[in-house]
Write a structure and sequence with these properties.
Length: 165
């Protein structure tokens, strides 16, 4: 297990060094990787990007939100493919139905709010749930993009105003 963790850490560091010189395109790629598979300290990396290039903070926010939105489709489709069976092994049918009904009443907000929240919000669990409960893809992408854009804009405004300390 420790060997696997060591390999993943080296892989993450390699990826970050590879994508860092790409500027805002790198921020989008890192956000994609963060949302699709392995967790990356996206807020810290984005703050560093913004601190180096304050005049283009909006590009980092837009591409970070777009990368996160597109990367989120991976756990979304995993949830859609076999998530119901996965959840029903862990909770009973009545609770599953109750969760689904509550999600379907306000599915846009159910994805927008977790997308706006800072780490350590279990964002991928919400994305997986959106796939399980068959949220429409365009609504999902709009909610994630808007939520992440708000999150990254707040982060960038704090970095520009107060700096990195």
């Amino acid at each position: 297990m420790k060997a696997i963790q060591g390999f993943l850490l080296k892989y993450k560091i390699y990826l970050l060094h590879l994508l860092a010189p790409l500027g805002f395109w790198g921020a989008g790629a890192i956000a994609f990787i963060d949302s699709a598979s392995m967790p990356v300290p996206m807020d810290i990396l984005l703050a560093g990007y913004i601190w180096k290039d304050k005049s283009h903070f909006y590009l980092y926010c837009l591409l970070g939100a777009a990368g996160s939105c597109l990367g989120g489709l991976v756990p979304f489709f995993l949830g859609r493919a076999g998530g119901e069976i996965f959840l029903l092994k862990r909770i009973d049918r009545a609770r599953y139905e109750k969760l689904r009904d509550r999600f379907e009443k306000q599915e846009f907000l159910a994805m927008l709010i977790p997308s706006m929240l800072p780490p350590p919000t279990p964002w991928k669990a919400f994305v997986f749930g959106a796939g399980v409960f068959e949220m429409r893809i365009l609504n999902f992408m709009a909610a994630v993009f808007l939520g992440r854009l708000i999150h990254y804009l707040v982060l960038s405004l704090l970095v520009v105003r107060y700096g990195l300390r």
